[in-house]
Predict the 3D structure of the following.
Amino acid sequence: MALLKESRMANTNGKAELVLKNANLMTMDTSNPRAQAVAMTLGKFSGVGSNEDVEGLVGPDTKVIDVGGNTVLPGFIDGHIHVLSSGVKHVNMADCDVPTLTQVQSSLKERADSTPAGMWVQGFKFDDTKTDRTASNEGRHLYKEDLDAITTNHPMMVAHRAGHVFYLNSAGLEAGGYNDESEDPPGGRLGRDPNTGKLNGIVYERAIDHIRFGLIPVDTDEVRREGLRTICRMLNRVGLTSVHDARVTAEEFQTYQDGKADDDLTLRIYALMWYPQFPALRDAGIKTGLGDDMLRVGGIKMVADGAIATRTAYLSEPYEGSMCDHGILAMEAAEIEQQVMDMHKAGFQVCIHANGDATIDMVLTAYERAQKAHPRSDTRHRIEHCTLVNPELLARMKAMGVIATPFCTYVYHHGEKMRYYGEQRLEWMFAQRSFIDAGVVSTGATDYPPGPFEPLLGVQSCVTRTDSTGKEWGINQKISIEEALRLYTLNGAYASFEEKIKGSVEVGKLADLVVLGSDPTKIDPLAIKDIEIMRTIVGGKTVYEG
């Protein structure tokens, strides 16, 4: 191993607080891709090289950890995940990620029994294609009768895992002002019994908004703080050190600030602010980037279409087996363009959820028109998910410097849903190979709760394009392990304008690391998801130890 150059030590004065030695260190730094040891001082890397190279930074108070040849990587970065809101759900909602309707109902009943009559009961992570699924049954949705059997004394709302479809009992429908004569609201749809035309309790997209954001009480400060502690523990345990929280309200941002002040925040947060917050941020003179290494105002987040997991993404061609179902467009083109124009002009990064190719086209048109009207350099506007692409869309993204944040765990976890898109369309979905080849920056992202949040599961899914049953989907989009690891490190940092301070192990960068039990480049790619996370380090401090 080449000797560490003196310049690599120049930023440190004194001794390191923490040193890892005897490591298989994959730095993600192209100028120094492999190392054996790393030193950390005052929350930053102060030495990278051989054991001998960093020996001079070891003092009497330095903690030295011999990792015994284990693989060390920069801390993982999830470029699109619902962080605090998920933590809160784990605190005050029923987890419906169970395989049978009976178990779903049992979990919801337990929550209802402890909730005063008349108050909302909520559940999350229900998945129709995984509930009562057998060889002869493709799964089932929830209907109002299923929820009425649990309680009629509470309005009830259960969120599909994708977060774009919701299930209400009769009391919930009534509270929301819906009856059998109700028309579909703009940007949404009401589910109906195909035989009777009566409401069946399923509510799609923006048809739920006035209930979610108006009728259901805002979570208390105490619940949000407990949710923050809960989700930090969960994400640190899988090696995550930085996250882009994909829908942050003013109340949630306050919770992040309070958690940071009290040392409850063990993840670096890039907050994509929910678009209703935009006018206040703009009027206060705030722009993307305000904050520090732990908590930063990111872009403005909007949702333009439906979801992949619920088959509501807005596609140019109908879904498999349908003659006319293209999905749901949650925002019309004119609304997208006006919002983008205002946010772009105000100096914000714009981050729009767009899954279908038709929606992506609309979003790119809005970005192009905003840039033409108000030229800016290095905007790094994003398309959240950016699921179904084509060569023309990729060329436009490259020309604009638009970033993609595709689902990385979906092929593995949601394989049974891929049949709705067809083999040919899957060749252009979650298109990491095409993004790389076209020169479009893409990230590692999971969108939890819609997808599992484990980064190594995302790496495996991108590398193998194989679902949990062993079936491959769109194998032309396979990428190498090294490319997949870059998505979850340097590319994630780039998407938040932070590539100069994190994403690779280099002297002067933030001391964020994950220690793995196996080298992902040397094992069966189908076993990557099972690699043990042995230690997670944020700013030179261990936040998880297995």
